[in-house]
Amino acid sequence: MASSSTTPAGITPSTFLSVLSRYEAVIRLPGVVSLASTVTQKTLGELDAWRVNTLPTVLSQRGKDGRSYLTHEELQEIMKCKMKRGKFRPTLLPLVTSNSTSAVEKVTEEAFSHLKGFKHNEKPSIDAIKTALNYLSKSLKGVGPATASYLLAAQSPQWIPAFSDEAFRWVFIEDSKPGVIKGSRGDGWTRKMDYSLKEYIAFVEKVWEIRKRLIQENSKHCGLDKKEKSEEEMFNAGTIEMVGWVLGKEASGWTVSKAETSGDVGTREQSSVEAGKRKRGDHEFQESGDIKALDAEDTETSGSKGPRVSRSRKLAKEKFLSTSNSPTMAQGQAGPTFTLRRSARSIQRSPTKFKH
User: Fold this and answer.
1) Which residues contact 121 (CB under 8 A, 6 or more apart)?
2) pLDDT in tens, 271-313
3) Backbone angles phi, psi at 250, to 5 degrees
4) Can you tell me the distance from the alpha carbon of 35 to that of 107, in angstroms, rounded to the nearest whole number?
5) Bridge partners of residue 338, in order along the sequence
6) Sign of CA dihedral 222, 226, 227, 228
7) Terminal-to-terminal C-alpha distance of the chain
8) Residue 53 DSSP one-character state
C-alpha cells in the first residue's frame, strides 16, 4: 500500500515532482528484460525516451502538415517499448508486425482524427477517446485497449495516459468502483485487472482529477519550477502515469539507488511481499495471425514464492524467439501459429479471458 504522502489524494506537487525525477533512473531496470530484450537490442530507456519525447513531436509536425498517423515501424517500436515496460507478451509483436503498412497508417490517422483539437493538444472528450480506442482495437491485429492507449498517448500526452498496471493500481489504490474496477481498497498493488475499455476510461477520468488538483495546489502555493516548465508540462496525463509506474515498481522492490548503482540491467530483486504473493498460472493460448484478443493480460493468482512458467509456455516463447528474426517475419506477414496446452490443474479453473 502506498504511504499517505504518495497516495493520489495525498501527494503534493513537490512530492509528485520528486517521484517523477526518479523515473529515468528506475526505468533503466525493466522488470521483464530477460525475455523482452530478445525482441530488440535497444534498451527500455532508449525506447521510452523516443516514445515520450521524440514521437509526440513527430506526430505534432505531421498534424501541422495535414496528416497525423503512425508508420508500421513506429507501431512496432511502441509495442517493443510496451513489452519491455510491462508484462512480456511474446505473441503480440508478430501480430502487430502482420498488419500492412497502409493499414497502420490509415487506421491510426482515422483514430487520431477523433481526438478533438489534436493539433493543439486540446482536451478530448471521453466519447472521442472511446471511439478512437475502439477503432484501433478492432482494426489492427495485436492491438487491444492497453496497446491502443500507448498509441493515443503519443498523439495527446497531455490528456491521454498509457494504460500500465502500475499507474492503474496507483490511481485506484484508495478507491473501489463496483461494476467497473475489480476488488476493494485493500487490494493495493495486487488488484486484478481486466484491461477493458471500461477500466481504461475510469482510469483516464481519475488521472484527470489528479491533474486538476495538482495544478490547482501548485498555483495556490505560488508554483514550482515555473521558470523552467509550465504546470501543464509538469502535471499532465503522461507524467501522472510515470509517477504511478515508478511507485508501483518501487513497491515491488525497485529503488533509485539500485537503478543508479546496478550494472546488471537484466536482474531484479523482488520484495518479500511481492514474492510471497505472485504466482503465474498455466494458461492456454491458441494464437494465430487473426486473433488480436491475445493483447489481453494474463491472470495472476497469489500463493507461490515466485513466477512459475509451464513447460509448454516456455517452449512457445522459445519458438517465438527463434522465429521473430527470421525472413518470414517481414513487414505485413503473419507471425508464427502455435498452441499451448493447458495443464490438468488449470483445466479445473475457469478459462482465462482474453478481452483486452
Assistant:
1) 60, 156, 157, 158, 159
2) 333 333 443 333 323 233 333 334 444 333 333 344 444 454 5
3) -65, -35
4) 30
5) 287
6) positive
7) 26
8) I
| Residue 143, SS3 per DSSP | coil
Cβ contact 125:156 at 8 Å: no
DSSP 8-state assignment for residue 300: E
* Contact call for residues 155 and 62 (beta carbons, < 8 A): no
Q: How many residues does the chain have?
A: 356
Question: Under a CB-based contact definition with an 8 Å cutoff, are residues 159 and 232 in contact?
Answer: no
Determine whether 345 is exposed, middle or buried from the number of CB atoms within 10 Å of its CB (0-12, 13-18, 19+).
exposed
pTM of the shown model: 0.72
Where b means 16+ CB within 10 Å and e means fewer, 193-204 reads: bbbbbebbbbbb
The C-alpha cell that represents 325 in the structure block: 528474426
Neighbours of 230 (CB within 10 A): 12
Q: Which residues of the chain have pLDDT under 70?
A: 1-3, 29-39, 116-121, 183-186, 222-228, 255-356
Kindly report, residue by residue over 154-175, the tens digit of the pLDDT.
999 999 999 999 999 999 998 7
Residue written as grid cell 522488470 = 31
For residue 43, give the C-alpha cell.
Answer: 534498451
Return the axis-axis angle of helices 197-220 and 145-155, rounded to nearest 10°.
40
At which residue does the C-alpha cell 471500461 appear? 198
DSSP state of 72: H
Would you say 320 and 91 are in contact if contact means Cβ atoms under 8 Å apart? yes
